[in-house]
Amino acid sequence: MATVRFTQNIQRHVACPTRDASGSTLRAVLDDYFRENEKARGYVLDEQGRVRQHMVIFIDGELVRDRDGLSDPVAPNSMIDVIQALSGGSTSQ
Amino acid sequence: MSNRCYVATRKGLFTIDRGASKWSVSHAAFVGDNVTLVMHDPRSGDLLAALNHGHFGIKLHRSRDGGETWPEIAVPAYPPMPEGYVPKPHPFTGKAIDWALKLIWGLAPGGPDEPGVVWCGTMPGGLFKSNDSGDSWELNRPLWDHPKRDDWGPNGAEHPGIHSICVDPRDSRHVSIGVSTGGVWITRDGGKSWVQTGGGMRADYFPPEQMHDPNVQDVHCLVQCRDNPEMFWVQHHNGIFRSTDGAASWTEITGVKPSVFGFPVAVHPKNPNIAWFVPSTKDEKRCPTDGRVVVNRTSDGGKSFETLRRGLPQEWAYDLVYRHGLDVDESGDRLAFGSTTGSVWISEDGGDSWQGVSSNLPPVYAVRFAKD
User: Fold this and answer.
1) Torsion angles phi and psi, residue B178, rounded to 5
2) What is the Cα–Cα distance from A17 to A5, expressed in whole angstroms?
3) Contact criterion met (CB below 8 Å) for B201 and B236
4) How many Cβ atoms sit within 10 Å of the Cβ of residue B139?
5) Contact at CB, B78 and A48, closer than 8 angstroms
6) How far away is chain A from the Cα of B64, in angstroms, using its nearest Cα?
7) What is the SS3 assignment for A4-73?
8) Edge-to-edge strands of the sheet including A55-59?
């Protein structure tokens, strides 16, 4: 099982506790996580299932490359971090 | 007459109430968050607030207790592209439209005979309908799939969008919408089919041969008179236009001082010859002429205009008023507008005089009266 951690900033809108989720690709792991937290899905992915423009995801410290397909491989003990990018803050200025 | 209005700003949603001696802010919600639009539904009392979180996307919230609590509801979502479909790149940008929600730009309750119906205009170029007060949304495919929709152009923002939605008081299936940039579109069958209008409009940002094409018209705001629904007004990128035939054809109103550029327009609900505008100098100089905030009012269908300034700052003021930043109440006597510099003014005499409510709010995106 991989572990999925979320930025603190998302917690104000939707609770996203750190939790283990299973899958061998990022898509599978996130689907598993969001299955029990459907509301959070739309905060991280758009309606086409792509990583939102101003969100970034790391797998074991490496930036995810396939932001549309989420095909990046995930190892059984991987740590996945879902974080807001520095870009995209302009709507809050 | 309305005693309350809602002000959607870049850093929260504020309620403004009429007190014994003046109007003042009485409540704040979503403080720190970017509230891009607010809608009051006179049928149910529901309030809808659209938020743009930037990182986390566009969200919708609904209050059923007058703005005290705001549970999140469904947000309009674009469907997956059909298999094998290749969207057409726009000639301006070379980019195809992304089938993903970028902004909620228009919200309007359906008619009194269709409780629960809410219309939502979006960027990029979508019109969504809810039959359950916002619990679920469906993209209007006849408009989205119309071949001319591919040619809608980007406006000041990156994407074309639908910002104005007018539900005809005589027939809720008759809906007229304003598109930036894509002219005016009308359905008479609840959205099953659409026709484009815009004849008479003029787009100076195109070569002469194309400037009258209805599909390139940059409608900034479209409003319909409640008690005389054949009468429409448009604040357009290139000026002010009026229709007296149900938005079928348009006549340009010229010679308006200090300028004809601006974003919002409001029409008197009873008298279609009375309309208000908040002018800015021009398209590449979007601030009040000579630093003086004014409201332009016509009372004779555009033959003449009065420039109203009593109670408004007349020096060193650079307030811009966005397309949803001006509203008139159901009586036609009370008006409110809010600006990019966080000022809000209210008039109780049809615009003759104005009182400042605040000059310290965040940049204002929308001002909407509570309507009975």
Assistant:
1) -110, 135
2) 7
3) yes
4) 18
5) yes
6) 19
7) EEECHHHHHCCCCCCEEECCCEHHHHHHHHHHCCHHHHHHHECCCCCECCCEEEEECCEECCCCCCCCCE
8) A19-21, A2-6, A79-84, A55-59, A62-63
Provide φ and ψ at B60, rounded to 5°. -125, 140
Q: Which of B53, B55, B97, B135 to mutate to test the interface with A (most CBs of A within 10 A)?
A: B55
Residue type, A92: S
β-bridge partners, B299: none
CB-nearest partner of B100 from A44, A47, A84: A47
Say whether B216 sits in a helix, a strand or coil.
Answer: helix
The two three-digit tokens of residue B198, written as one number? 């815009």
**Residue pointed to by tokens 């739309």:** A42
- Distance CA(B221)–CA(B262), nearest Å, equals 9
The CA distance from B339 to B231, in Å, is: 27
pLDDT, position B371 = 87
Q: Which two tokens stand for residue B196?
A: 């484009």
Report whether B231 contacts B269 (CB < 8 A): no
pLDDT over threshold 70, residue A93:
no
- Which residues contact residue B315 at a Cβ distance below 8 angstroms, ignoring those fewer than 6 apart? B291, B292
Does residue B166 contact residue B224 with C-beta atoms inside 8 Å? yes
Tell me the shortest Cα–Cα distance from B33 to chain A, in angstroms. 7
ipTM of the complex as predicted: 0.91
Predicted TM-score (pTM) of the model is 0.95
pLDDT of residue B204: 87
Please list the rounded mean pLDDT of every run of 10 residues in chain B (372 residues).
97 97 96 97 97 96 96 97 85 85 97 97 97 98 95 83 98 98 96 95 90 94 98 96 97 94 97 97 86 97 97 96 98 98 98 97 98 80
Q: Which residue of A has its CA nearest to B57?
A: A43
Write the CA distances from A4 to A19, A58, A62, A69, integer angstroms. Answer: 6, 10, 14, 18
> How far from chain centre, in Å, is Cα B62?
19
- Tell me if B166 sits within 8 A of B121, measured CB to CB: no
